[in-house]
Design goal:
Length: 253
């Protein structure tokens, strides 16, 4: 009897949780579009994640883990299969970035023994752009056929497959650059946020466009703060190089 009651209780809790995180659990309406509890929680966690990243805080990765999980279920219910399926990859990049930021090599440390901010050259930026475009065409094609190949799992066609793939490619590229603590990441984040504003409007996510607008300003702020950090690091490095050269000449004399 006790086992039966426990199972009944757990099933009840499961149903409550599923109902709460359903996109049909509308909390309020904005611009004629309903905003679910899942969307609101995702927004709060995402903003905390980006805010910590702007400040260069390692805590951004902890918020990032939760954000990936929440987005997986949000995109699943909105049939944005591209963004849903690659959330595990985004989660893996988060783990990698967490390790990189907390375990820099000796030549990668700033004056606080943290991973320093660096930049890509034009050649490296071209490679990143090329990878994003190739990813868009390949992943977009796969998404456009996914409901045909696996109808039992994906009962409806993907929403805007190529545009969705492009948005996700930008986000993954930005995450990868962020994991390396590259200043360039904020430029990619800015483009990704603008693309996601358009995608969110087309997908009927009434609240998310406003959130991505906030992300745009955070991306600009992140660029300014990281640029300041980068310039400060360069000045420190140049002073050390100058001191080493002077000391070297002194030893020779």
């Amino acid at each position: 009897m006790g086992t039966f009651l426990n199972m009944h209780f757990l099933l009840g809790i499961k149903e409550i949780v599923l109902n709460f995180f359903s996109i049909h659990n509308i909390i309020f309406v904005i611009f004629g579009q309903g905003v679910s509890a899942l969307e609101i929680i995702s927004v709060i966690v995402g903003l905390l994640c980006v805010f910590c990243a702007v400040k260069g805080k390692v805590a951004n990765f902890w918020f990032g883990y939760l954000y990936n999980i929440l987005l997986f279920f949000l995109f699943l219910q909105n049939r944005l299969y591209s963004s849903m399926l690659l959330q595990p990859i985004a989660l893996a990049i988060n783990f990698y970035g967490h390790y990189r930021w907390t375990h820099p090599r000796s030549n990668e440390k700033d004056d606080k023994n943290k991973l320093k901010v660096t930049v890509y050259n034009n050649g490296q930026r071209t490679v990143v752009a090329g990878v994003v475009v190739i990813f868009m065409f390949i992943w977009g094609y796969l998404l456009s056929r996914i409901d045909i190949w696996w109808p039992a799992v994906f009962t409806y066609p993907a929403t805007f497959p190529y545009f969705d793939a492009f948005a996700l490619g930008l986000v993954l590229a930005a995450q990868w650059l962020s994991a390396q603590k590259k200043l360039d990441c904020w430029g990619v984040w800015l483009i990704a946020d603008i693309v996601n504003i358009i995608l969110s409007i087309k997908s009927g996510l009434g609240f998310m466009p406003l959130v991505y607008v906030a992300y745009v300003f955070l991306a600009i702020g992140g660029f300014m703060i990281w640029l300041k950090m980068y310039r400060k690091q360069r000045i420190t490095e140049l002073k050390k190089e100058a001191t080493s050269e002077i000391n070297g000449e002194t030893v020779k004399k």
